[in-house]
Amino acid sequence: MMRDPAWHPSFPDVGSAAGRCKSSRTGNEAGERSRGTKIEPGRPPRYIAHMTSATPAPLGAKLPILMPPHPSLRARTRRVAPSDMDQVRALLPDMFATMYAAPGIGLAAPQVGVGLRFAVIDLMPDETPAPMVLINPEVIRVSEDWAVREEGCLSLPGQYADVTRPARVAVRYQDADFATHEIEAEGLLAACLQHEIDHLDGVLFVDHLSALKRNMLLRKLAKERKQMAAQIAPQTAQG
Ligand SMILES: [Zn+2]
Question: Could you write out the DSSP letters of every residue in 212-223?
Answer without folding.
Answer: HHHHHHHHHHHH
